[in-house]
Amino acid sequence: MKLCDDLHDLSDDFMQFLQQLGVECCKITGSKLMPPRGAGRLSRDALCALQDQLARHDLTLGVFLLPQGKDTQYWQTRFGRPEREQEIEDVCATIMTCGECGVPVVEWTWSIIDVWGSESGPVARGGAISRQYDYDKIKDIPPEPGYAVDADTMWERLEWFLRRIVPAAEAAGVKLAMHIQDPPQTPCLKGEARIISDFEGMKRLIELVDSPVNGLNLCQGSLAEQQGADVLEIVRYFLERDRIFHVHFRNVRGTCPLFDEVFIDEGDVDMVAAMQLYHEFGYQYAIMPDHWPRLTGDTPLGHASRAYAHGYIKALMQAVGAKPRGRQPR
User: Fold this and answer.
1) Three-state SS for 77?
2) How big, in percent rounded to 5, are the helix, strand and coil portions of the chain?
3) What is the CATH number assigned to the segment(s) 2-320?
4) Rounded to two decimals, what is the model's pTM?
5) Domain range annotation of the chain
6) Per-residue model confidence as pLDDT tens digits over 170-223
7) How does 87-124 read in b/e, with b if 16+ C-beta sit within 10 Å?
């Protein structure tokens, strides 16, 4: 497995910081390379320029996240509108560019409102600021006009999309990693059916178009938020089928309808046992912290908070024999 982090900043200083932590590869949110709003097709020149910059810091690009959010690359596809015909061409061209440039994993999401409904507060150890979700506070908020969609319709639209991007990914030689929905397991959130938010939805996704490139970004936090989920057994299920291509290695306390995102070492999931599973099955893709609580006095980019999470992950990797990156030769 490869220690990874999100390129929230594209400066050389930030990349050097990641190199100092022992990070090996990075994830980029596609919108950062596709101004002004993350629509259209990824430029090969922009991607290559980023890879060259990363290489100067002994880093590689391990994950490209297709642009998310309103009016980005495949926004109209979520609504099943005619514009999706052009959007799917743009998405497939972007996947092909990633393959040509050696990016191994393309991540994607499937939601209209995305991550929504939580608030930040002093809910982690020592009053560290982190995210809390309480469904009772937001369950009666009505949807935006036109945003409401039932489960059958959402599955129909997703299948249309998946049946086109999977062949593109096979041809490009890249893996597709779908980030499971967060918050999960809410039948309807602001009018939108949450269809990839439990074990059955995750299984249905990979079975819908059964291909070795069709897999998951297994966000352990989103998985742990699912009430009644056996996190380790679900991780094992998808590792056995080689369908995990990206991991958000984070922890939570509680489950839907009420949970807190906490420090990686204080949540409900046995993170040592989880790391042992990834190593046991020879997981070879990116593993990264995500949604870390913010330490007092930290920078806007969360240097200290990231470092804490990375240090914990590296220690677990060493403990199970996964041999994270150490000091580089001169």
Assistant:
1) helix
2) 40, 20, 40
3) 3.20.20.150
4) 0.96
5) 2-320
6) 999 999 999 999 998 667 788 899 999 899 999 999 999 999 999 999 999 999
7) bbebbbbbbbbbbebebbbbbbbbbbbebebbeeeebb
